[in-house]
Amino acid sequence: MVLRMIARGGNIDKYPAKAHARRVAQNLHESKGIIVVSAAQLVPWPNSDMPAPFRQDRYFYYLTGCNEPGCRVTYELETDILTLWLPAIDKSRVIWTGRGSTVEEALAKYDIDEGRYLPAHTSTLPLQEGTDVILSSLKGELEQNWPHSVFHIIANAAKLDLLFSSTPDDVVLASGIRSSKGTKARQLQWAIDSCRVIKDEHEINLIRQANRISARAHEAVLKHIHHLSNEAEAEAEYMRVCIAHHAKEQAYNPIFGSGVNAAELHYVNNDQDFSHRQMIVIDAGCEVHCYASDVTRTLPLNRSNPGHWPSKEAEQIYNLVAKVQEACIAQMIPGNSFYRVAWLATEMTMAGLLELGILKGDKDEVRKAGTWRGFFPHGLGHHVGLEVHDVPPRPPPKDSKDIVAGDGQPFQEPLPPTWRALDWYNTPQPHNIDPETMKDYTILRPGMIITIEPGVYFNSFLLENFFLNDPAQRQFIDQDVLKRFMPVGGVRIEDDMLITKDGHENLTLAPKGEAMLECIRRGAEEGRRAGRDQVSREARP
Amino acid sequence: MVLRMIARGGNIDKYPAKAHARRVAQNLHESKGIIVVSAAQLVPWPNSDMPAPFRQDRYFYYLTGCNEPGCRVTYELETDILTLWLPAIDKSRVIWTGRGSTVEEALAKYDIDEGRYLPAHTSTLPLQEGTDVILSSLKGELEQNWPHSVFHIIANAAKLDLLFSSTPDDVVLASGIRSSKGTKARQLQWAIDSCRVIKDEHEINLIRQANRISARAHEAVLKHIHHLSNEAEAEAEYMRVCIAHHAKEQAYNPIFGSGVNAAELHYVNNDQDFSHRQMIVIDAGCEVHCYASDVTRTLPLNRSNPGHWPSKEAEQIYNLVAKVQEACIAQMIPGNSFYRVAWLATEMTMAGLLELGILKGDKDEVRKAGTWRGFFPHGLGHHVGLEVHDVPPRPPPKDSKDIVAGDGQPFQEPLPPTWRALDWYNTPQPHNIDPETMKDYTILRPGMIITIEPGVYFNSFLLENFFLNDPAQRQFIDQDVLKRFMPVGGVRIEDDMLITKDGHENLTLAPKGEAMLECIRRGAEEGRRAGRDQVSREARP
């Protein structure tokens, strides 16, 4: 359907499922065994006959490129055969919901070696209840094809439950006699995660395309913001463009937070009037073929003078965050540590808040107290891929052999001694530093896609409950100055950065800074000419 | 937030949770015991850190009017006390996701007797894993307040699992010593279902409001259809209006099926070009405060002559379906049996198909063979309420006492003898006829809201696999005539009918028939004047 959407002046390649499977296998250091991963199921809401939204399991998708429910994928390490198992087609249901792919269609669409149907009843059985049945039915098929590997598991009733379940542990390596849930499943999951960290050209193009559509949708909001008066109307315009461009699925719940709501980081109600609020944070990005984009823009809400800052304070905070983002982006180069970039963001934000007079006192003491966290309470960024918060590089499970990333290079490099005293920028102990070897897993590598999203917020709940009520923190905050800045609400600017061989490419195309203001002004001008104000009033509830 | 949206020239009443609880209690014929129902939880997608969409449990909502996750409600039969249990507020999460209601806010918002906080850790624990913990923590509270009733259950480990689980069986009546999962849970669920069948004024107003917004959204599509060229663009326009009117939640996945897709009843891909297709079926309705609307309109896609039928065949099928709908609507009066209305729809559709020459042969033989089901393969309608397919009246569980509906009247009336031979209109054995007493539970009563949605489809898969390949059916189908009608795809028209004391009220306001055509023509005319064609081309991917 939307294949044409990922075309970039050439033929569209299939999603490289086979290459992914091989890369994962390379990471397993196993010569025998079968990888088995289940697709997500289409199930009704509890106590209802309506289907709950379907979201494909990302591990399954990585090995197939298939977004259909109820499938399985198997990859045999020994023979290098990637098989997609499709739900049998239930003719009596076709009139209601259509059908999934036939084997022939699957072979044409997906980068697999073979397609097969699952036994007829597996397609309608809930997965957990039906596990035994599925396996019993599958047993003949599996025995016939891989007599040495899977049979042992099937014969072992205790392990049947694990094979096709859909919990976080369900990525199971079914590998001959030595197979066991814990170790093998963790090892396989980690092997896939390690591959997922480095995006190939196909994946990059999907994220590029998601960013392209998100940019269009953000632009549409900029053009219309002058005549909108409620967060819901802005979200409506954003979603209109995404849906029209076949990107209904969002990588996360869109955030349209005006005024104080800008300072609630995962605000999703999106239902309040702009009234006299100064700014709106729009954090919204669509998915394309299960790949995410993640885009944040902060706009002035200045109805009387669209495309201009509503206050000096708003402009100052926006410019501070923009400066931090720009400096961090410049640091997104291969070989650099993301910790260094995050440190830079912290230092610059703190310096900016001191300069504006919101923070006061000695810089080293403020840093030590962590008072800046009252205004920048989240991390600088995260990987983006099949998840909007995609898997980061992680130390290997204790019992694993050395593992390489998707590009065949080892991940871990020793953390430079100067970076070991991480607590001086007050982050919690990071999960991607190996606590024993102090190796740093945040080294930037070509093919990584990571957001850069600094922010400054004025959240009265956070400040009152954790900072202003604590003398050790309060001493570093100038409450008179703070009062002037509270109405700004919050500012965040976020782009998706692809690390390239030579540096980086910013995949996010939505206008920001002066270009954004110009876009709002142009929209307001066009709106005036087209009498768009009138249309808006007509459309109000 | 959206309270103002349900205002109808007066103060807004709270959702009548207490009245619902009392009505349910009346149906239980128990003097002691506590009804306990859990809200839905906010949980991440499997293998992901992103929250899955939240949908409130409808039984919980019926007893609270509260759309917040992680709550519980208890209603003590003896003392008539309705208590809402709120998740404890985790201050460290407020900066991320805000917080749920405080007890004070809950008392102001909801029609409850008291609000209490659940123990702190229950709010973040997944429900199934945390059940024991929740109950242990709750035990003190419960013992203190209801020493006679719940303690027995808490002391019985085998039943702990049942109390707050979220499976279809989780509606549990915790009633003193005699409590047991099976019987009591079924009895309570049935008692609530029986109440839900008859809507009170508050519920009717919510469904009215949902229909009002859906109508606006359908109208917007009508006005723009002349310059749209893909199903996704039509859905985008529909969703824009719903979201802007604070009705982002849809009662079901919107269906925008053009041409052949119109004949796939639950088609949801909504991604194909109109090309030269004749018609589009739009089946889309939003929710307001968890209450559904369900609206279907079928539009001509006639770019060269907007608002006119693209073919004689399209017009004939539309007019047939419209005539059937009109006649059925006229039959929606208190005391009538919905079976009679469904029978009428079948008879009229069959007669129409015979008249058009698509069906041929003797009417009685065609009826007996059920050949009309190749063109009208679904039921005539269903209840609408907290679910789009809301609970219908059902025979009571075997071990229950007599039960009354929300209006205090008994449901069951004996099925008239003439209606007992149901198979003559070829429906499957209905689930709301008591097989032993042959009592008819489909008698229409004031306060019921039921869709009337006849349709005629030309689904080649259905016809080829179940009718044209079967000589017993094929003999009644004129394939030459059929060929002319295949490009029509399908037509369905659906309204939500409220049964009133004197007859009915059509809650669905979206234009249909001539008013719909006129709306398309007006939109095309306005579009021409505003140069909207140009805007559309600009917006294409």
TrEMBL record, chains A, B:
<dbReference type="InterPro" id="IPR001131">
    <property type="entry name" value="Peptidase_M24B_aminopep-P_CS"/>
</dbReference>
<dbReference type="InterPro" id="IPR007865">
    <property type="entry name" value="Aminopep_P_N"/>
</dbReference>
<comment type="function">
    <text>Catalyzes the removal of a penultimate prolyl residue from the N-termini of peptides.</text>
</comment>
<dbReference type="InterPro" id="IPR029149">
    <property type="entry name" value="Creatin/AminoP/Spt16_N"/>
</dbReference>
<dbReference type="InterPro" id="IPR052433">
    <property type="entry name" value="X-Pro_dipept-like"/>
</dbReference>
<dbReference type="Pfam" id="PF05195">
    <property type="entry name" value="AMP_N"/>
</dbReference>
<dbReference type="GO" id="GO:0030145">
    <property type="term" value="F:manganese ion binding"/>
</dbReference>
<dbReference type="GO" id="GO:0070006">
    <property type="term" value="F:metalloaminopeptidase activity"/>
</dbReference>
<keyword id="KW-0482">Metalloprotease</keyword>
<dbReference type="GO" id="GO:0006508">
    <property type="term" value="P:proteolysis"/>
</dbReference>
<feature type="domain" description="Aminopeptidase P N-terminal">
    <location>
        <begin position="15"/>
        <end position="143"/>
    </location>
</feature>
<comment type="similarity">
    <text>Belongs to the peptidase M24B family.</text>
</comment>
<dbReference type="Pfam" id="PF00557">
    <property type="entry name" value="Peptidase_M24"/>
</dbReference>
<keyword id="KW-0479">Metal-binding</keyword>
<keyword id="KW-0378">Hydrolase</keyword>
<keyword id="KW-0645">Protease</keyword>
<protein>
    <recommendedName>
        <fullName>Xaa-Pro aminopeptidase</fullName>
        <ecNumber>3.4.11.9</ecNumber>
    </recommendedName>
</protein>
<dbReference type="InterPro" id="IPR036005">
    <property type="entry name" value="Creatinase/aminopeptidase-like"/>
</dbReference>
<dbReference type="InterPro" id="IPR000994">
    <property type="entry name" value="Pept_M24"/>
</dbReference>
<keyword id="KW-0464">Manganese</keyword>
<keyword id="KW-0031">Aminopeptidase</keyword>
